[in-house]
Amino acid sequence: MDGLIRYLRRHRGARRSLSALSVVLGVVAVGLLAFPLVSDAYENWLQHGLGNELKSPESARRYQEGTLQDGDALTDITIPKLGVSTTVVQGISNTALRAGAGHYPQTPLPCQEGNVAIAGHRTTYGKPFADMDRLGVGDTITLDTPVGSCTYQVSKAPFVTHPRDFTVVANTPGQRTLTLTTCHPKGSARERLIVQATLVNATEAKA
């Protein structure tokens, strides 16, 4: 340490470089701390618009015709155990998931036969799935779409799998299931936390 101090005293350029590095590191640190707050604010702004969009006749038409585009409002998801109530969009691209949660487009639409799959953030963009690990067998998850609603019941304890394990979102012909996915552990994309549920009730929207 003493040698480093003596070196810096003799070399003005080294001192300037060190000062510049300190500034850069400080800016990076502030950015990392601020990003969750900024992303949450952006998600909140998006959610306000998506809530109105989901209730529109145009949304119901696109839903029925199967012409939903990436980022379109798809369904409200409510998880009483976690105090979660948010609008899910179509798609799981980085842009779509800025809304907080998105529907895997290759899977059935909510309430339909098969395995409906939804991905959600755990630490940013509203973090709707932050506490997904707290869900247990019997807890309920409700999806309210432009054409009806349905309730699923968690069928097994949350479990962890590899991020490229796509079997968890594979179709389930003859069954009506729901799969929620999020990153694990919090703040890392190393693994995926999975919750699976089975349909217990469904109702069509009144004309």
- Rounded to an integer in angstroms, the radius of gyration calculated over CA atoms is 22 Å
Secondary-structure-derived class: alpha+beta
According to CATH, the homologous superfamily is Sortase
Mean pLDDT: 87
Provide the domain count: 1
Helix content: 25-40%
Q: Supply the number of helical segments.
A: 3
Got a strand count? Answer: 9
- What is the CATH class designation? Mainly Beta
CATH architectural type: Beta Barrel
Anisotropy-based shape = globular
The parts where pLDDT drops under 50 for at least 5 residues are 20-35
Q: Would you tell me which CATH topology applies?
A: Sortase, Chain: A
Largest sheet: 8 strands, mixed, barrel
Q: Secondary-structure map with pairings?
A:
Elements lengths: L1 H9 L1 H43 L2 H9 L7 E7 L4 E7 L10 E3 L10 E7 L19 E6 L2 E7 L4 E3 L14 E9 L6 E14 L3
Parallel strand pairs: 2-3, 4-8
Antiparallel strand pairs: 1-2, 1-5, 3-4, 5-6, 6-9, 7-9, 8-9
Helix pairs in contact: 1-2
Structure description:
This protein has 207 residues and is an alpha+beta fold. The protein has a single domain (34-204), classed as Sortase (Sortase, Chain: A). Helices cover 29% and strands 30% of the residues. The chain has 3 helices and 9 strands; from the N terminus they run αααβββββββββ. The protein has helices at 2-10, 12-54, 57-65, and strands spanning 73-79, 84-90, 101-103, 114-120, 140-145, 148-154, 159-161, 176-184, 191-204. An 8-stranded mixed β-barrel has the order 1-2-3-4-8-9-6-5. α1 packs across α2 (12-54). The relative contact order is 0.13. Residues 20-35 have low confidence and may be disordered.
